[in-house]
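Structure first, sequence second, as always.
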């Protein structure tokens, strides 16, 4: 791909790659992303990019493209009917020039809109026959900006007031809404950005706004399922009542802010804990339902709560701590030493992100069918980078109030961390043991007293949090520390530190012995000769 091979004097179409992400109407099929190259201006021009865009960029020095950032210069001779370009055509690789790529250091467009107060203009789109959205102008303004549950308070609730959406102002704008009449019937338009081009020319120049949402009549179903939005853009489209639903609104504005979908079980909208997931939790008959926020990856990239985030390089360290849910964080109920999100770095750009899902407050409206699967669970997603799709890859039970997590990942791994589920339940040892040189034949029953206070005293006295985590109430990362008791080796008392000094084959032998593996939980789990890549949580 070199400018020198472009024919001299041939006109070109200079543009930036963009994608439109879709969220289908409930019960309707998933819609693929539409990739276009867009030329900015008062009238926006587009070329639809057909073919394998990833293969196209693999042939280039860049190796990949970035939505909203990668710029192309396309010879107009390559653009076919309907403004379509075939990237699989060998001439595309030879003649298209990648003219630039906005640097990530230039955050003016990509990141800055993730915090702050931004004005939103809602446009009621009316076709030439007078077909209109169901909601009147005043009703739509109320739905978007004034209802008890609306776009603005949904964004503020999830960000703790760091992201706000307010009604646009200016000439001809009534409570953030304007009406625009099209020149053709809705059935005459081929796609949503053709509608946008006509609307763009009709928006009053005095309208003060950053983001634009277009609400189309229900007759737009042929070109619009539920809603669509530019990724890293400022425009979104909604079919009729979906433009009144705060969950759809925040989902599409999430695309404008640079986020991809959040999927699960081979379905790109399949993460029910995240606003960037699917529509199972939205209800056209009840647009006040759908209170939820974002999964661990999206929350991390928003950057709202980095003071409660931990980055872990599993090649050199492990994470040992407590996770609390979004509602506790936004309400100031997170304690010192607790975290909200954890990122486990992989090789390349594939990373794991952990977060505790609790169905309450700002995240109360998970769909009923997912309640038992996700509530009070640590949800682990994998995502390759900002603006990418994230995928749920592990769901693990926590406790009703907080999830205590410890992660061990092999320090010599050369592959990206796979998403792994925990193994091993929280159990007391059934063996007897010594406490202060006295043999306790009852084992953990010795520590179990009638009062919790006395039980705690005996657990502390015998350093039993590792040996008896159920009795001592220390299920969680405490059950993965070494106990303070000794065990017999050839007539001598040994501690767990003795195992850590053994050759690898001896470590495995001792750690596989019943009783020793419960006493020396940290030593045995942390030994690369006996442990697996894993994340452990309290049962």
């Amino acid at each position: 791909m070199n400018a020198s091979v472009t024919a001299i004097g041939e006109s070109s179409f200079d543009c930036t790659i963009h994608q439109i992400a879709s969220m289908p109407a409930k019960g309707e099929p998933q819609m693929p992303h539409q990739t276009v190259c867009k030329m900015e201006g008062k009238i926006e021009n587009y070329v639809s990019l057909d073919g394998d865009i990833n293969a196209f960029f693999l042939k280039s020095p860049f190796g990949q493209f970035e939505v909203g950032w990668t710029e192309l210069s396309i010879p107009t001779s390559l653009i076919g009917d309907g403004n379509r370009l075939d990237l699989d055509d060998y001439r595309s690789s030879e003649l298209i020039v990648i003219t630039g790529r906005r640097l990530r250091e230039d955050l003016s467009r990509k990141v800055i809109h993730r915090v702050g107060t931004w004005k939103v203009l809602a446009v009621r789109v009316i076709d030439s026959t007078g077909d209109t959205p169901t909601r009147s102008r005043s009703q739509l303004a109320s739905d978007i900006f004034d209802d008890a549950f609306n776009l603005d308070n949904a964004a503020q609730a999830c960000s703790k007031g760091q992201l706000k959406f307010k009604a646009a102002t200016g000439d001809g704008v009534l409570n953030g809404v304007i009406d625009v009449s099209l020149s053709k019937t809705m059935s005459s338009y081929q796609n949503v950005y053709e509608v946008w081009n006509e609307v763009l020319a009709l928006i009053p120049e005095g309208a003060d706004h950053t983001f634009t949402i277009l609400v189309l009549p229900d007759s737009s179903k042929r070109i619009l399922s539920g809603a669509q939005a530019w990724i890293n853009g400022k425009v979104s489209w909604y079919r009729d009542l979906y433009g009144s639903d705060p969950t759809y609104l925040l989902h599409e504005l999430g695309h404008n802010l640079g986020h991809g979908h959040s999927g699960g079980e081979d379905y790109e909208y399949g993460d029910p804990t995240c606003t960037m997931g699917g529509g199972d939790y939205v209800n056209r008959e009840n647009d006040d339902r759908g209170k939820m926020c974002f999964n661990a990856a999206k929350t991390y990239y928003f950057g709202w709560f980095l003071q409660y985030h931990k980055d872990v390089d599993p090649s050199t360290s492990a994470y040992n701590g407590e996770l609390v849910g979004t509602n506790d964080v936004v309400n100031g109920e997170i304690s010192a030493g607790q975290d909200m999100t954890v990122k486990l770095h992989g090789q390349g750009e594939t990373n794991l992100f952990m977060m505790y899902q609790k169905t309450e407050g700002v995240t109360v409206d998970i769909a009923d069918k997912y309640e038992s699967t996700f509530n009070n669970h640590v949800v682990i997603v994998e995502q390759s980078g900002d603006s990418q799709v994230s995928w749920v890859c592990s769901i693990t039970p926590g406790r009703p109030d907080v999830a205590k997590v410890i992660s061990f990942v092999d320090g010599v791994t050369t592959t990206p961390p796979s998403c792994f589920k925990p193994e091993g339940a929280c159990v007391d040892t059934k063996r007897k043991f010594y406490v202060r040189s006295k043999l306790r034949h009852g084992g953990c029953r010795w520590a179990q007293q009638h009062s919790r206070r006395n039980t705690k005293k005996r657990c502390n006295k015998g350093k039993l949090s590792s040996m008896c985590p159920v009795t001592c109430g220390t299920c969680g990362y405490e059950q993965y520390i070494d106990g303070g008791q000794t065990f017999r080796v050839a007539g001598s008392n040994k501690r767990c530190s003795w195992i850590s000094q053994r050759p690898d084959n001896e470590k495995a032998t001792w750690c596989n012995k019943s009783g020793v593996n419960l006493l020396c939980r940290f030593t045995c789990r942390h030994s690369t000769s006996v442990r697996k890549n894993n994340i452990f949580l309290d049962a």
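Margin note: The mean pLDDT is 79.
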